[in-house]
Every structure is written in C-alpha cells, then in structure tokens.
Specification:
Layout lengths: L8 E6 L4 E10 L9 E11 L2 E11 L5 E10 L2 E9 L5 E3 L2 E2 L8 E4 L7 H7 L6 E3 L2 E4 L6 E4 L2 E5 L12 E6 L4 E7 L5 E4 L3 E3 L2
Parallel strand pairs: 9-11
Antiparallel strand pairs: 1-2, 1-17, 2-3, 3-4, 4-5, 5-6, 6-7, 7-8, 10-13, 11-12, 13-14, 14-15, 15-16, 16-17
Protein name: Glycolipid-binding domain-containing protein
Length: 203
C-alpha cells in the first residue's frame, strides 16, 4: 500500500462523543536525524461531558511514519499541562525524560483528542488487502495527559466502497479496552475521512 504525500493541512469535525474541531498542518523534515519524515502540528478544541478543553500537539515521525517525538499541551479549567514523549523507533519510550516500560514495543502515539493520529499505524504498517496486525500505541488522555498503553488492531479490507462515494482505503479497527470496533475510511493520503462516533473530515 502506497499513500500520496500528506496535504499541507487537514481538519476534522468531532461528533457524538464530543463537540469540537481539529486542525492540523504537515511539514516535511528536510534535514537532521529524521530527514524524510514529517512534523505534524495540530490543535483540537472541544466540549465533552460539559467540560471544555484544548489540546495542542507537535509530533515528529520518521520516514516510515514511526513516532519519534510528541510534545503535547492541554488547557482546561483545571489549568495547563505539558508532556513530552520521546521514542527510539524500536519500542522504548521516555515520558518527560523518565523511562516508560509500560509502552514497550509501541511504535505510534495515539491522542484521545485527535482523529489525525489514526493515520500513523496505517502508514507505518502498509497492510495489503486482507492483512491485519496489532498496533499497540502510547495513548495520551486529553484532559490530564496521562499516558497509557492502548492495545489495538487494524485489518485492511477491500477498497471497493460498496456504494460509499467516499471510497478510499478502509480498515476494520478494534480497541477492546474501550469496547470499540468500527470501520475507518481513509483518503489517498492515509488520513481518516470517517471515524464513526468520533470525527468526520471537514477539509
């Protein structure tokens, strides 16, 4: 599976689980140890369970779309929080400089606040139709930036849209800890178009 280069910017409207909007910008990394990768900077503003919050993020991925660094800031009525995740690309992580063994063998960051981060595993794994794989991730909560291990699984299914005019690559996604099982529709750049119950692409 080969994806087109990411656009300069994309946006999602968050639905059902929360009311909100997410905007993201992509910049190629043209020098340094992550040359060929991307810096992805975004922001989600939302209302969820009558609480308001804002999450800003800057994520660096290498040329294989493996997460190498994520700087995240959360703002809410409780105050401002910051966290820094650093990864060696082989499954070892630091959280604010301290080893995080509970994230062992995770290669992606997954932000609770974001629809964008579901792009990382599909880019990284490049699954053939019919293939599936576990994709454990460093999952960052929106409100307090707690970092947990999230076990999840992606299976690529045939691209035929079955009457869905959006088309594009499709994956069956499961995150058992949240009792989530759904079908994710992506565009040619490997960005989610529709995440049922969470977000739809707006731009």
């Amino acid at each position: 599976m080969t994806f087109a280069p990411p656009p300069e910017t994309a946006a999602w409207r968050h639905v059902a689980a929360r009311t909100g909007f997410e905007v993201v910008f992509f910049r190629p990394l043209e020098s340094g140890p992550l040359e060929g990768g991307h810096r992805i900077e975004g922001c989600t503003t939302a209302v969820e369970d009558l609480r308001t919050w804002v999450v800003d993020y800057a994520i660096d991925v290498d040329d294989g779309w493996t997460t190498r660094r994520a700087r995240i800031t959360s703002r809410s009525a409780a105050g401002v929080r910051h966290t820094l995740l650093e990864a060696d690309g082989r499954g070892d992580w630091l959280i604010d400089g301290a080893p995080a063994p509970h994230l062992g063998d995770c290669l992606d960051v997954d932000l609770e606040s974001s629809a964008l981060t579901n792009a990382f595993p599909v880019h990284r794994m490049r699954l053939a139709v019919g293939a599936g794989s576990a994709a454990p991730a460093a999952f960052v909560r929106a409100a307090d930036l707690a970092v947990e291990r999230l076990d999840q699984h992606y299976t690529r299914i045939p691209d035929e849209p079955d009457g869905d005019a959006r088309g594009g690559p499709r994956y069956d996604y499961a995150a058992p800890v949240f009792d989530v099982s759904c079908r994710l529709v992506y565009d040619e750049s490997g960005l989610v178009l529709d995440y049922p119950g969470l977000a739809v692409r707006a731009a």
